[in-house]
Design goal:
Layout: H1 10-24, H2 26-32, H3 46-66, H4 75-96, H5 110-117, H6 126-155, H7 162-175, H8 186-190, H9 199-224, H10 236-248, H11 254-279, H12 285-295, E1 298-300, H13 302-320, E2 334-338, E3 348-350, E4 360-364, E5 371-373, H14 378-384, H15 389-398, H16 405-408, H17 414-430, H18 437-462, H19 480-489, H20 495-507, H21 514-533, H22 539-547, H23 554-562
Parallel strand pairs: 2-4
Antiparallel strand pairs: 1-5, 3-4
Helix pairs in contact: 1-2, 1-3, 3-4, 4-10, 6-9, 7-9, 11-12, 11-18, 14-17, 17-21, 18-19, 18-21, 19-20, 21-23
Protein name: DUF885 domain-containing protein
Organism: Streptomyces pratisoli
Length: 564
Amino acid sequence: MPETSSSALPRQVADAYVDALIDLDPITGTYLGVPASAGRLPDFSPAGQEAVAELARVTLVRLDEAEKLPGARSDAERRCGRLLRERLTAELAVHEAEEGLRTVSNLRSPAHAVRNVFTVMPAASKSDWAAIAERLRAVPDALDGYRASLALGLDRKLPAGPRATASFITQLDEWSGATAADGRGWFEEFVTAGPDELRAELGSAAGVATAALAALRDWMREVYAPALEGAPDTVGRERYARWSRYFNGTELDLDEAYAYGWSEYHRLLGEMKAEADRILPGSGPWEALAHLDEHGTHIEGVEEVRVWLQKLMDEAIEALDGTHFELAERVRVVESRIAPAGGAAAPYYTGPSEDFSRPGRTWLPTMGETRFPVYDLVSTWYHEGVPGHHLQIAQWVHVADQLSRYQATVGGVSANAEGWALYAERLMDELGFLPDAERRLGYLDAQMMRACRVIVDIGMHLELEIPADSPFHPGERWTPDLAEEFFGRHSGRPADFVESELTRYLSMPAQAIGYKLGERAWLLGRERARAAHGDAFDAKAWHMAALSQGPLGLDDLVDELSKL
């Protein structure tokens, strides 16, 4: 870790942490736009994980000293120190429970990180592609380190879930080319866009990376998966509480949160029934959504839907800038992309590099489809793009000089960001951007999905009882199978999406509850700020102040939002 003087304030300590983290984690460096990171990959072995944890421990000691200084009392220093302490403490709790020895998922694992980083690497010049080739040659060591961690987890009786493992093996099959007609893997397909003069080098490097994926797949299938016989897919209350702290930045009352999920379920169901009747009189919500799948407005073609989503975001920026937000020119730029095949079904967002040379991007997984109903895209792109993830994350990067590099980049809290994005969907409904029943039912379906996430994610991991007033299996206790059935009955999305989502919840416990609980925090903060200001409350000024204060855990978010 770079030297930090004894007079360093919290923001300086935080930024020194980022510098040291980039050295240990070149993937983070690439997302931040650091050229020196381009050819390397992290050490995912137990030793590599311990090095990151030791950095966190040293940083917390330095933060203790920094917070004693008189200058640490300013709002900027206080917020940064508060965030840094909460984040590093939560990360260390996860590490010390050895959760990193069983990180298997269909969405979030070292292998996913290795593959996904190539999609954000610069690829405009010969030197860019030379760095890609160098990183491709680093894939075997990175995946070997990951495998060493999983093997140690088996030795210590710390298994991943069987369902997530089976899904991950299927993904590795696809990434390594086992399911492709031409046998070409994802890396081999990726390098076809490279320059002719590097064709041989890129092909060779991609072959090395693909062979490493295949070797990991074989080990997962032949060694790891058989060792999981009898292992549960759920994590239980103790592990769930630890992960809840990590993803939400607060010590949640999990039983209260479960009850809140049910209250939102009942509220949303009533609204959905009203909109469904406007679309198909006499129908229920999911009959109406099925009708829209066949007969509603839709976009034909993969490139066509990418262009349409770009237009949707551009139009939102034009309508919102100057009225409800004040956006810097570089924040106004966001790109619509099609996600690489072989990932999870959910759309996602990647933020801009620190200098905005790579803009923020939204990503649509097509799951092999070429026809895209509009009803479930509009509010989702308000969530992923504008005014959702893009406005928040790009604004953090834009005001990094007022915050700290840590706050603007690696110090995020999942529930803060997902809560803002869900708040953004609701805001667009409040502002009249969902004027017809088709789009509004799609928005309510997305909201219902987030309420169901709270119910099933907490319910199945804690094996809670289904309430007596539930229309679904009242009095029974949740299991993953019941959760998948419930989710499928209460979603307009296809079966492969539902299956992918349930696997995600099982392998990332407590992440999915942050959408609804984070939205509740944002709404409560706005309500209290409005009450404090009365008629003088300025929503545009509040939004920009809220987006410019940097990330916070839910413990601190409502308090800080209320003061704005």
